[in-house]
Design goal:
The protein has 340 residues and is of the alpha/beta class. It contains 14 helices and twelve strands. The chain has a single domain, classed as TIM Barrel. Helix 9 links the parallel strand 8 and strand 9. The termini are far apart.
């Protein structure tokens, strides 16, 4: 009779040799593990969802990263192709350079690689404020059209600009600038922070606006204020460092959002939960906890793999999606998010 398990002997030997090294000190306390109610196949089709008017094949967003550098074009095109293959959405890095020149346009022109998947351009609040003040909001509209994007991400980054030696200053409350842009252009907008997250009053104000989504960019992920400290060669920025450590985690922000949703009517109920999302389990937990329509976003995880071959990036993404599918089959959330 043919051996039905030809690797049994080597596998058993591995089990003996690796048994002690494979002990785990503690379980992930966020979940109940319930193995009796499903098979262990992973049906990734169960992950498909609607988000902010778009169809996604998995609740994963590739958060804004880069443009205008030597490697940016390679990275963005890899990420765009990934979005088409796996049915994901993507935000571009800051498109500020395109306001003055098309020199780096090819870094950002990724629609041919993305198919119909959601793509958003990206500008800082300082640039938006200046263009509105100059009566040049049509430049923003033309930028979005030029990139064949579905809308615009506005990043709110007062501390990054303050830490940055060459940083911009803006003088109007961002909520006023965002409201004015909506009135003048009717663009589809996503609003995000850059590593500090947002408190409950800021989230409440944004949720009252007719925007597509709010991206957390919470404390715990890439912190662009700290990044500017690391760029500093003079030592001057280090004197300001205390403010680099303020902010709100993704867990806190889910709690704030839930409180707001339970107490009042809002116009925006869509959230990209990002900042400190190190694995699909973080994403699965927070999506399930959020009472709005939520997906999770990552930047650094995708960036690390996008700098190499497309196949490495593809494998990383496949592992994320299959892990997310399996976690939905066998895990139930144990704890409620912090209410804030």
């Amino acid at each position: 009779m043919q051996n039905e398990d030809p690797t049994a002997s080597s596998r058993k030997q591995d089990h003996i040799e690796l048994a002690f090294a494979s002990q785990t000190p503690h379980a992930d306390e966020r979940f109940y593990y319930e193995p009796l109610f499903t098979g262990n196949h992973t049906d990734i089709h169960q992950l498909a969802c609607h988000f902010a008017g778009h169809q996604l094949e998995a609740p994963i967003w590739i958060s804004s990263m880069t443009g205008g550098t030597e490697k940016a074009g390679h990275i963005n095109k890899n990420l765009a192709a990934l979005c088409q293959e796996f049915g994901l959405g993507m935000g571009l890095g800051s498109c500020r350079s395109l306001l003055v020149s098309d020199e780096y346009l090819d870094d950002f022109r990724v629609r041919p690689y993305m198919g119909d998947q959601p793509l958003y351009a990206n500008l800082g609040i300082a640039q938006v404020e200046k263009l509105l003040a100059d009566g040049k909001e049509t430049i923003i509209v033309e930028l979005v059209k030029k990139l064949e994007a579905n809308g615009l991400i506005i990043h709110i980054n007062p501390l990054q600009e303050w830490f940055q030696p060459e940083g911009d200053r803006y003088y109007e409350a961002p909520i006023v600038t965002i409201s004015r842009l909506l009135e003048k252009t009717k663009l589809n907008l996503i609003v995000k922070e850059v590593g500090h997250g947002m408190g409950p009053a800021s989230l409440q104000a944004l949720m009252q606006l007719p925007i597509d989504a709010i991206e957390f960019a919470a404390f715990g992920g890439t912190n662009f204020s700290k990044l500017e400290m690391l760029r500093d060669k003079t030592g001057e920025v280090a004197q300001k460092q205390a403010l680099a450590y303020v902010g709100h985690t993704a867990v806190e922000m889910v709690g704030y959002v839930n409180n707001i949703l339970s107490s009042q009517e809002v116009l925006c109920r869509n959230f990209i939960i990002s900042g400190g999302i190190s694995s699909y389990l973080d994403g699965a937990y927070l999506i399930a906890e959020c009472h709005g329509e939520a997906i999770y976003g990552q930047a650094s995880g995708f960036l690390k793999h996008a700098m190499g071959t497309y196949e490495a990036l593809r494998l990383y993404t496949r592992q994320q999606i299959e892990g997310l599918a399996m976690s939905r089959q066998i895990l139930k959330n144990k704890k409620l998010a912090t209410n804030g």
